[in-house]
Design goal:
single chain; mainly beta; Neuraminidase; 5-stranded mixed beta sheet; 1 helix; zinc; SMP-30; calcium ion binding; gluconolactonase activity
């Protein structure tokens, strides 16, 4: 059964490829990206004001370092961005010598370790990988990934999740909770069947996995055992990634995209690329800060 929960439009500035939403509970600010257009969105939820920052490069995710700085994951590396003026300084290169690839789905583990996905700009098979930024160094976790998505972590930090959307499989991997690094091999948690594809995910305080189903106008909620519990309607076909927002983290921000839509498809999906707020009655978790050293 598809649930129709109260839904509003946070931003009607359509994203070519909306991705990487996150929320800073200390300032009541949501952030997300338009990867293809090199834009960073900043929304003050209390007032509803939205600002758009031009980055000058494709970027897909950020982690909060502290009250003054963010770590931006871009197509050629990791950049420290100052909130005061938006100035960006290269912290570490990542696949900077490979013009084929860009960054995609990413998320910060409770330990402060940052999992980072890359992929081909044209979704070239197995062109990407999933990396971990841990103690100031980048290590390869899973190579040969076509479209990395659904990176998220259980509340106790002991399980990591990810998918290669091209394979339609959501994996679970045991982690060291203190480091956010694997201590075992990935195992299949669920195989996606039917319409749509596994895209971005986030775990709630109860360990449930909230997944944006690309191409199916919905967010699916799975148990830690891989059982689908809920499906929430999203008013755009290509929902891409969710994040918990609001002072009590009970609302769900969902990005979307108009990528690969021709004029007829966009006319049939008029809110494609918009960013939404769903009154999801969730028990979300605040995103941890990323640690640089």
């Amino acid at each position: 059964m598809m649930e129709q929960v109260p839904t509003s439009v946070l931003s009607d500035d359509p994203c070519h490829l909306g991705e990487g939403p996150t929320y800073d509970v200390t300032t009541d600010t949501a952030w997300w990206f338009d990867i293809r257009e090199g834009r960073l969105f900043e929304a003050q939820l209390g007032s509803g004001s939205v600002r758009v920052h031009a980055l000058g490069r494709m970027a897909s995710a950020l982690g909060r370092i502290d009250a003054e700085r963010q770590l931006i994951v871009a197509e050629d590396g990791l950049y420290i961005r100052k909130l005061a003026d938006g100035a960006m300084t290269l912290f570490l290169p990542l696949e900077a010598d490979n013009p084929v690839t860009r960054s995609n789905d990413c998320r910060v583990h409770q330990s402060g370790t940052f999992w980072i996905g890359t992929m081909g700009k044209k979704a070239e098979p197995k062109a990407g990988a999933i990396y971990a930024l841990h103690r100031g160094k980048i290590a390869t976790l899973f190579p040969g990934i076509s479209i990395p998505n659904s990176i998220c972590f259980s509340p106790d930090g002991g399980t990591g999740y990810f998918t290669d959307t091209a394979r339609a499989v959501l994996y679970a991997v045991p982690l060291n909770p203190a480091t956010g690094l694997p201590r075992g091999e990935p195992e299949v948690l669920l195989r996606h069947t039917g319409f749509g594809g596994l895209d971005g995910s986030v775990c709630d305080a109860d360990g449930k996995i909230w997944n944006a189903c690309w191409g199916a106008s919905r967010v699916d909620v799975y148990s830690p055992q891989g059982e689908r519990l809920r499906s929430l309607s999203v008013p755009a076909k290509q929902a891409s990634c969710p994040a918990f927002v609001g002072p009590d983290l009970s609302r769900l921000l969902v990005t979307s995209a108009w990528q690969d839509m021709d004029a007829a498809a966009r006319a049939a999906d008029p809110q494609a690329g918009c960013t939404f707020l769903l009154e999801a009655s969730a028990r979300g978790r605040a995103e941890p800060d990323v640690k640089l050293a």
